[in-house]
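Reopening: structure tokens for the fe (ii) ion complex, inputs below.
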Amino acid sequence: MERSIPFRIIVTSDSHIGKKPERISVFRRTMISMLSEKPDLIIHCGDITHNGTWTEMDEAANVFNLATQNGVPIVLGPGNHDHQGYIWSQSREYFENKGIIVLDGNVYSLKKGKRVLEITGVEGYGESYDQKMPATHYFDRVSQPNSTITDDDLERLTTGLSLLRGDINLVELHFNPGVEGTLKGEKEKYYPFFGSRRFASLVDEHNENSQYKVGAIVHGHADHGSHEGVTPGGIPVYNVSMYVLEKYVPHNEAPKLYRIIEI
Ligand SMILES: [Fe+2]
Ligand SMILES: [Fe+2]
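Re-run output (same inputs, fresh job):
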């Protein structure tokens, strides 16, 4: 029987370009390092920029170009910080015109040998775990007075999941899908800022009913959280915030600001 060659996927998040002047050089070095790993695909789970300005978006695009020029596809979704400059919809177009794939309930497909990898994603949002306080109210009031988050992300993810037809399927979010495993390390009282359980439930439900099962969920945003968790239905969840990954050193290797998934 022919052996299938695994997909080599690199996932990272929370570059926060513009937070400090050195963030852009860190991101550039990280990109060069990621490309040296010969990935089939690079995924960025948002908070690409810190203030969501054109200068930051432009700096990010120049770094992403290093990958696209080398034939490595870049797939990304926005994070809450990418909305801070109120130019996300134009930036999205700007990225797409440069050949970068932006996820928002759509599906990206990649073929390797006879296998197809598909990925869908949305940003997600934070929400009180006990459901007593609606997500938008809680999150807007406490953290992001100008946020435009709505439950539409759940609808768009429903659409994205229904379109998946890969041999391997992944979900990308910025916010945590409501899985405590990748929040450990954050203060518990702030858990509502980091995600909503509705996203994990939706993907679990999809896996119960579809033959095109999701093999993993990747997210960022929880910078003090943990690198691995699992949904109640058993789907692996990876927090790929670079702040988390720089503290996670497997097998005494030098820390990397990205995670390699071979699947
Ligand atoms: Fe972040
Ligand atoms: Fe974030």
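The chain has one domain: 8-262. The mean pLDDT is 89. Marking as resolved unless the reporter disagrees.
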